[in-house]
Every structure is written in structure tokens, then in C-alpha cells.
Amino acid sequence: MKPAAFKYIAAESLAQALALKAEYGDEAKWLAGGQSLVPAMNLRVAQPAVLIDLNPIEGMAGLTVKEKPTSEPHALVIKAMTRYRTLERSAEIATHCPLLHETMPHVAHPQIRNRGTLGGNLAHADPASELPAVMMVLNAKFKAQSVRGERWIAARDFFYTLFTTALAADELLTEIAIPLQPDTPTARTRTCFMEIARRRGDYAMMGVAASVTLDANGVCTDAQLGYLNAGDTPILATQAAQSLVGQSISAAQIQAAAAIARDEVQPPGNVHATVAFQRHLATVLTKRTLTTILDFRF
Ligand SMILES: Cc1cc2nc3c(=O)[nH]c(=O)nc-3n(C[C@H](O)[C@H](O)[C@H](O)COP(=O)(O)OP(=O)(O)OC[C@H]3O[C@@H](n4cnc5c(N)ncnc54)[C@H](O)[C@@H]3O)c2cc1C
User: Fold this and answer.
1) Structural domain of residue 44, as residue ranges?
2) What is the mean pLDDT of the chain?
3) What percent of the chain has pLDDT over 90?
4) How many structural domains compose the chain?
């Protein structure tokens, strides 16, 4: 299979890339890791007239922990062209963002993780992907740049529907900022990611990213539950999560939260899993992630 003819431009700088996109608009596509775009072009599902290759641009990959001077949480800032493999192997991510660290080995296969980028993944906005759900749970925000300037978009406002985001035609996602949750005597946050796929590396039939914060008395002060392959966008089960807040969470409360989550997800169903089975998986995975967090992590 071969793509339709297209013009290839290796961008030399961010400014040049943004100017090219402003000129070509929807006719042009950014090329990041190419792990979704190139197969789509080969199948002729995507037929961009112009490809603007981001790979030659220096300074678009890497990650850093940014310390905030005030009481605001510190942030892990990841540049958009950072490869999955870097995220998977980063000691800083393992230390500061264990949810992302735990999730990375579930994303596709090692070969794809060598090329795929965080920015490409989020901009692609596949609701079956792990990372959009994780970013919603972590309350990340995304920096979009264009010749018109830059703006930050909350992950929770970014995913509009299948493969559609808040990015305008001339905007490039350049940075992802994740607020960090340090342990303090009054707030301990623990997280867990689980998914069920037919084979390791396949897109999952259902997946859950969970985060729970407890105060010094073991009372839940915050809970987040994010689901993948559970709707047209990543889904936050806000009612299920809210049912845990203010509680010293028991097994019965986990069971109740899982039952609420079962009704909050909106899975599409497919050839591998019916809607009923996907809802069942959401229930089971909610129980497992919350039980793992509460049994083994505190
Ligand atoms: C066999 C296979 C299995 C896979 N399994 C999984 C899986 O289990 N889980 C999963 O999450 N993914 C999976 N993927 C998809 C993979 O993660 C892709 O790498 C990812 O979705 C896209 O990232 P990319 O860097 O390759 O982007 P590209 O393919 O280069 O681009 C994807 C889209 O995003 C746009 N884009 C890229 N970068 C930016 C940016 N910075 N700003 C704005 N727009 C941008 C492009 O123009 C394009 O439209 C799989 C892919 C394959 C081929």
C-alpha cells in the first residue's frame, strides 16, 4: 500500500513549521512519530497535500520538573516530540509521575514506542489510547502554539470527540504540563493503571487510570477515575470518583463506586467486546485499581 502523492517539508525551526501550517492550513499535516499518520496515509484514509516533518527541529523533545515559587504544585513539563521510549525509561517520571510510568509499557509495542511521541498521541485523540485518559486523571494542560501566539488548554477541555481536539488548523501542540502531587503529612496521592487487551500491545478493550488522595486520617480528599475505549473521548467517571470523597474507603464503597462507573462509561462495543462486556470490564477494573491503591500503596 502506498500513500497518495504529497509534498514533504523537513521543518528547520519551530517558527518555520508554524509559518508553513499557517500557509497551508488543513491541507498540511504535522509528521511526528508517524505511527498513526503513516498507516492512515498508506491506507489513503488520510491524504494530506503537504507533510511538515517536526523531527528535524531541535528542542522539541525532553522533559523537566519545573519548580513553582508559590504554593502552586510543581509541574512535570514534557515537550511534545518526546518519544514513548523516553517516557517509559525516565527515572524522573518513575519518581514524580508513577501513573504515567506504569502506563507506558501498555502503549502499543516496543517498536512503536521507539518512534511514537506524546504530542502525536494526544493530538491524534484516539479514545482507545491510554494516554488521553491518563492526562485527564492527572489534570494535565497542553500548550498550543501558532503564528498567532500560544495558549494553554486543560486536558479535560482538549478532547472533543473521535480524533478531534480543541487545536485549530494552524496550532501545534508543543508542551504537556502535569501538576505533581508530592507526599505531605496531610495529603498522600496514590495511583494505578490497568487495562485488558486481547494481546499485550493491542488496543485495550477497556482500561482505567485511578488516583486517590488521602488525608492524615485516611479520609479520601480527592479521587479521579479515567477510562479508555469507553466513549468518543476519554471518560472521567466523576460520580463514581465523587462517591469516594469524604470517606475512609471500604471494600463496600469500592464496590459501589465500580457500579456507578459501570453506568457512567459509554463504550462503543466492537468485534472484540460487546458493550455489556466492556461495561463489565470497567466494573472489574475499577474494583481492581482502587483495591490495589488502598491495599498495597498506603
Ligand atoms: C500496530 C499499532 C498499535 C498501536 N497500539 C497503540 C496502543 O495500544 N495505544 C496507543 O495509545 N496507541 C497505539 N498506537 C498508536 C501510536 O501510539 C501512535 O504513535 C500515536 O497515536 C501517534 O503518535 P505519533 O507521534 O506517531 O504521531 P503521528 O502519527 O506522526 O501523528 C498523528 C496525528 O497527530 C498530528 N500531530 C502529531 N504531532 C502533533 C503535534 N505536536 N501537534 C499537533 N498535531 C500533531 C499529526 O498531524 C497526525 O494527524 C498503535 C499504532 C500501531 C501502528
Assistant:
1) 7-53
2) 95
3) 91
4) 3
Among 35, 43, 113, residue to substitute to test ligand 1 (most atoms within 8 Å of Cβ): 35
- For ligand 1, atom 47, the nearest C-alpha belongs to 30
Ligand 1 pocket check for 80: Cβ under 6 Å: yes
Distance in Å, CA 171 to ligand 1 centroid? 17
Q: What are phi and psi of 228, to 5 degrees?
A: -110, 155
Q: What is the arithmetic mean of pLDDT over 87-108?
A: 97
Ligand 1 close to Cβ of residue 62 (< 6 A): no
* Whether residues 135 and 199 fall in one domain: no
**One domain, residues 46 and 89:** no
Indicate whether 72 and 165 sit together in one domain. Answer: yes
Ligand 1 contact, 107 CB (< 6 A)? yes
Report the chain's C-alpha Rg in angstroms. 20
Q: Using one digit for the tens of pLDDT, what is the confidence trace for 231-282?
A: 999 999 999 999 999 999 999 999 999 999 999 999 999 999 999 999 999 9
Kindly state if the Cβ of 123 falls inside 6 Å of ligand 1.
Answer: yes
Residue 58 lies in a domain: no
| Same domain, yes or no: 195 and 291 | yes
